[in-house]
Every structure is written in C-alpha cells, then in structure tokens.
Amino acid sequence: MLNPATSAFLAELAAALPDGSLCPPEPRHLTEPRGRWQGLGAVVAKPQSVEHVATVIRACAGAQVGVVPLGGGTGLVGGQVLPEGPAPVILSLERMTRLRAVYPEENVLIVEAGAVLAEVQAAAEAAGRLFPLTLASQGSCRIGGNLATNAGGVNVLRYGNARDLCLGLEAVLPDGSIWHGLKRLRKDNTGYDLRNLLIGSEGTLGVITAASLKLYPRPAHLAAALLVVPDPAAALRLLALAQARLGGLISAFELIHRTGLEFLAETMPALRQPFAAPPEWMVLIDLGLPEGLDPQAALEGLYLAAEAAGAVQDGVIAHNLAQRAAFWHLRESLPEGNRRIGAISSHDIALPLGMIPQFLAKAGPALATLGDWRINCFGHLGDGNLHYNVFPARGRSRAEHETQREAIKTLVHDMVDAMGGSVSAEHGIGRLKVGDLVRYGDPAKLAAMRVIKAALDPAGIMNPGAVLRG
Question: How far apart are CA 460 and CA 470, in angstroms?
C-alpha cells in the first residue's frame, strides 16, 4: 500500500537534495498527448546526477511513496501520468542532459537519459556518425524514455528498435542502489541481461539515468521515392524485391493509405501533395547508400523491376535532398492530420508480414458492422508495424462515438491476436493497455513478469499502475 507524500516527507527529501531540486507540478508534468488522463503529483523532483536520483528513490522506498519517472512526456499510452491513488513524486530527468563521451572509432556515444533525441542525433553527426533512431517526436522526446519504452520509429527495418541501439545502461533500481552498467562492449555474457530487462520496462523496474549507444557510419548518399502500389500484397512484393536488389541499404519502407492524404488535404491544405489524385496505397522507400553507388540508378532500377512484376503502378523519385525531405515531411505530417481529425480508437499493432494483406482485407468490413467509419492505416510495413486508426465519418465528431471505442479496439485487437500479432508494437503498455496485456498476454510470461516486479520492487513504488495491474 503506497503512502501520500506528506509535507514532512517532502521537507526531508528537500533537505537531502541541492536547493531547487523540488518544484511544484506544472500542467506539462500532469498531462499526456491524447488527453485521456490527468495525472497527479505531489512534487516534481529534478535531479542533476545519478546520485541525486538514487537519493530520491531511496527516500521514496523508505516511505513507500510512489515514483513516476518522466522523460519528454510524449508517450501515447499514459505511462507518464498517474491518474489515481496517492499523489506520487514525479521524477523528471530534464536536467540530466550531459553528453558524457563519444568514441567515434568505436561507434559509441554515452549520454544522460534526459538528453532530447534530436540532440543525441546532432552529437552523433558532429562526430561524423549516425544515431539512427528516428521518431516524429524527436524534438522533444528524451533518450531515457525512448529506452524505457523500447521505441521503434521509421528505421527499425535497417537498424532495429531502441533496444538494438543500446550497449549499456546506468540506472537506479527500486531500492535506490545504482547499477553502473555503462559498458561499451558488443559481447558480454556475464549472467542475466539487466540492460534488456530495464529497456522496455517503462519505469516499473528502475530509472535509466544514462546510456551507452551504438553509432553507425553516415551513408554517403540518401535517396527516397514515393511508389504507388496496387494493394498491400503488392507492397510486400515490392519490399521483397527491394531487399533482394538492395540488401541492407533500405533504411525505411513506409505504407501510406489514401485516407491519410485526404486528412492532410482537409486539415493542412497548404501542404504540397505529390499526386494530383491520392492513390489508394503508396509506399515511401528510403535508402542510405555507401560511396560508389548511384541512388538515382538504384531507385530507377528498382522501379522498372517492380513495374515488370506488377508491384508498382506509378511513382515519384526524389532528385535531390530537398525533394526527399518533402516526402518525409508528408509522411511525418500524417499523425498531425490524424490528431486534427480526432481518432475514436488508435491501434499500434504488429503482424507477421504475410498476414498484413489478410488483416487489412478483413478488418474494414468487420468494423463496418459497428458503424460508418473512416480508417487511416499507415506505418512501418518493413517491420510489420501498422498504425490502424478509426475515425468518425465526415461531419461527425469523436465525442459522438466515445461509447463505441472499447468495442472498436476489442474487435481490432482480437483480430490481430488471432493472426499471431501484437497489440503494442512500439508504443508500450503504459496504462492504456494494461487490460490488453492481461487479455492477450501469455500466462507464463505474465506470471514471470509479476515475479520479477515483486522481486525488484516489493513495495510497488516504481510507476505504480503502469504495465502490470497492482
């Protein structure tokens, strides 16, 4: 049973930390992007070092006061807010942003968890290297939150999730002890992998305070194309053909549906669109090529081969970096178009690649039995992660259908689960999908997760209510 953070507790905590470390919560500490929860917070702790984080956690463990770690606050499943129960200590890492070291010859960068993702990318670029994690929120999300949620993004096809980009961690465990795991090793088989246990745990098993990250050589040439495909099955044939011709040079392979372009025309009419009439399906393919390879020739050759195979019908190849940036601006605007329309139910799903056409063929008609909807499906087809979002018919509002949200979500998630997929591809569980984890999770896995949580955090202070039900 957790306790409230009393005035006496807060006074003791303030005395143990440097002046200015505790602040009253602001609205940005208590909200999340989709507006489904309003968080609680007794105080915001803003430590400047791992030792200060340990001081906060030790105090909370001793008093059995909850702790909600906070990165950039961009998560979409409510993991960063606690809407009920005793008001917790909100632990913000916004002051822990130091770049501790860069080893270009090793392709390693060590940075504190509060660093904004775009700043990490810039630090890698300054060293002549690439940190490939790329998200729409990279200007505000923080690397600690990216690791805590095992963030994905558009480059997973080539470089992997956040988990795959991390060599070592520094973290504070629920008893306040510090794990000094900032190794730069590619191989380290010394027992249980605590790094990968903390990555994706969403702050429920400890607080990541710094990370040793993998860097990569920067591609000499970048290229992109928007290719019109007949249907999702053809998009998969295009993907297979591209992989056969270009191997590991494909950085991203994004599927876009006509509805997404229509939403942009409706809500952002000044945004230039590449086609006079939006095609039903299109793919954005992005390449990163080494010196000596011609990006234009690579994409033109791919297009001709795909056209001969019936996998593409039309397309536009970027002839310079500005055109490539325009293609990506279009893709990255899709979530904002969605936000302005207002989704009834949004789904971050993953499916085996071969099941995606079947899912898309069945899900729409199944949802039509519940009402009249607009469906916007887009996402990272290269790694099987789709954002399948359901919107009201034109002229109707999301509020009119709020009572149907659960039925819509259940229908989509049941279908995904039956096809061997996942109801949380890259956003995490947070608080939004706690019930889904129980409904679709493997019983043995859930039992093991509860044992791990009880062993590391017996008082249940770390991000209470997130991931696992209390």
Answer: 8
Query: In CATH, what is the architecture of 219-339?
Result: 2-Layer Sandwich (3.30)
**Across the chain, what does the average pLDDT equal?**
96
Strand 207-214: give its sheet, edge to edge: 99-103, 108-112, 207-214, 166-172, 178-181
What's the CATH number of domain 99-217, 3.40.50.170, 3.30.465.10, 2.40.110.10, 3.30.530.20?
Answer: 3.30.465.10
Band the pLDDT of 189: cuts 50, 70, 90. very high
Q: What is the mean pLDDT of residues 142-154?
A: 97
Assign residue 32 a region (left: φ > 0; alpha: ψ between -120 and 50; beta: otherwise): beta
Query: Is 392 in a helix, a strand, or coil?
Result: strand
8 Å CB contact between 47 and 396: no
| Contact indicator for 16, 55 with CB cutoff of 8 Å | yes
pLDDT in tens, 232-291: 999 999 999 999 999 899 999 999 999 999 999 999 999 999 999 999 999 999 999 999
| Residues carrying CATH 3.30.70.2740, the chain | 342-426
Query: 3-class SS at 75?
Result: coil
The whole-angstrom separation of Cα 77 and Cα 185 is 33
Is the C-alpha dihedral spanning 260, 261, 267, 272 positive or negative? positive
- Whether 69 and 463 have beta carbons less than 8 Å apart is answered as yes
Residue 36 pLDDT grade (very low, low, confident, very high; cuts 50, 70, 90): confident
Q: Are 227 and 238 in contact (CB under 8 A)?
A: yes
The two structure tokens encoding residue 15: 């005395």
Quote the Cα angle for 182-183-185, to 5°.
155
Q: Which DSSP letter does residue 174 get?
A: T
Could you tell me where in the chain the CATH 3.30.70.2190 domains are found? 219-339
In this structure, which CATH number among 3.40.50.300, 3.40.50.10540, 3.40.50.10420, 3.30.70.2740 belongs to the domain 342-426?
3.30.70.2740
Pick from 281, 385, 392, 378: nearest CA to 345: 392
Q: What local confidence, expressed as pLDDT, does residue 361 receive?
A: 98
pLDDT for 424 beyond 80: yes
pTM for this predicted structure: 0.95
Per-residue model confidence (pLDDT) at position 125: 98
For residue 441, CA distances in Å to 36, 327, 363, 435 come to 24, 37, 21, 10
Rounded CA Rg of the chain: 23
Question: How much is the pLDDT for 469?
Answer: 85
Residues of the chain with CATH 3.30.465.10: 99-217
